[in-house]
Amino acid sequence: MIDLSHLKSDFPVLSDGVHFLDSGASSQKPIPVLDAMDKFARTSYANVHRGAYKLSVASTNAYEAARARIAEFIGATDSREVIFTRGATTALNMVAFGWGLEHLREGDIILSTEIEHHANLVPWQMVAKRTGATLDHIPMTDDFRLDLDAYEQKLGPRVKIVAVTGMSNVLGTMPPVRKIADMAHAYGARVVVDAAQLVPHSPVNVVDLGADFLAFSSHKMLGPTGIGVLWGRMDALEETEPFEGGGEMISDVTLHDATWAEIPERFEAGTPPIIEAVGLHAAVDYLDSIGMDKILEHDMELTEIALKRLGDVPGVSIQGPPDTVDRGGVISMTIDGVHAHDVSTILDESGVSVRAGHHCAKPLMRRMGVAATARASFYVYNTPDDIDALEAGLRKAGDLFGVS
Amino acid sequence: MALEDLYREVILDHYRNPRNKGHLDEPQATAQGVNPLCGDEISIELTFEDDKVSGVAVAGQGCSISQSSASMMTEAIKGKSRQEIEELATKFRAMMSLDEGEDLNLDPDRPGSVLGDLEALQGVRQYPVRIKCASLGWNVLLEALEN
Questions:
Q1: Active site residue A120
Q2: b/e per residue, A179-190, with b = 16+ CB within 10 A?
Q3: The domain that contains B51 carries what CATH number?
Q4: Which residue of B lies nearest to A336 if distances are taken between CA atoms?
Q5: How confident is the model at residue A84 (pLDDT cuts 50, 70, 90)?
Q6: First and final CA of chain A: distance in angstroms?
Q7: What is the pLDDT of residue B106?
Q8: What ipTM does the predicted assembly reach?
Q9: Contact B63 A358 (CB under 8 A)
């Protein structure tokens, strides 16, 4: 068993003993991340890419160092392929509106999936309406995986882009992105991956993954809110139009026209999240100091324990793969006769924080025939203690509502 | 605050055995509402006789608080005029309000309690995120009355 329990003291929020099981929504921040941001704001802060003075140079260097470090973290061969955004949602919207509006026509097909988070679904609905393209979906199998046979059937020359999650925020399912990307590329389609859950929890190498675009958020990987990343392979970014206009993103502007700056600046209109970039840099350093392979293994060990233990609680059904194959540390569950909100309130009284609701994946909820689930998600600071508390709280919920 | 104050037996009873659940044959007023954050849904159908509620039906799905609150509400409004219902709604909102709720000195068992079973919901006030669950049915009801 991988023991990361020594890390818990790095997370001030957890010092009062809370069993925090909602990292799938947002993760806690370790002291090195808080310190890096604090120190930067106190000593080196100014706007980037503008001033000729020393502070601005220091700030620009820190911002660009973060870009290079994140490129290295995800295996990008060129740090210009890392674009800082407001978060994964913004990154996915940049692809939908920057690439989709430019390249989709009536008759084209956008392929998303039934298990997608709204962030990789709703932007495509919007772009489909504006372009006349058709939105179709890769279905889910009854064992909570993507139906790759159905995917193969749906693929064809009219499919222009495939939008797929790297890891479901509801089920934990990790679809085989490499295979999905290779199949799409055989038809010349582009592939965008919502990696908001994948990048924080699994080693990722964008070259090996084979997608064209990849989106993730800092706040789910121990970094601050307000910043995320769109990675795009250079040739894919070159055929993407800027989604926002403004300062920083231009080469020249007249009263009636403008030309774009180079990549990545052309996609970063306005003052970027500079302190947050420094924080994300520190978060990536922290994650790497543990090792992403170790983090994945740790999450899997907790998932395995939890699947075993929670399955024994009366009335509890796990909504997701029952094993740890190609799966992340997210466990959605329902209890017969107890609504997820009530489960969440009762768990909270035991100091256990879980998310309850539809998890921004309403089509998936409908597909599963449930209105809401309670979801526990694991990260580096979680230990088997947290699962003990979760199990006890679930039994308490069942008792209170008379589940037998 | 103990969980037992939130999940009082009367609440659990209305949750397990919702009153006036379903649909009316010929409703004279209807409204639907959802809580987009959590997905709870409630629809209400009403009939009137002499300007008083003669029939009410509730359908929907959601947590014990939203569903039991709506169930109790249907019992409280039967035979009441619009004005009486609006007064009830005002009292209910006051009970749920963090500022005013403390002073009402509510006790569902005391003689002449205005809100009846509904007063069992006063424990919800201690769980601010759940107040909107308890209020959903009332909001939909007021909308139905406007229609």
A1: no
A2: ebbebbeeeebb
A3: 3.90.1010.10
A4: B16
A5: very high
A6: 33
A7: 56
A8: 0.86
A9: no
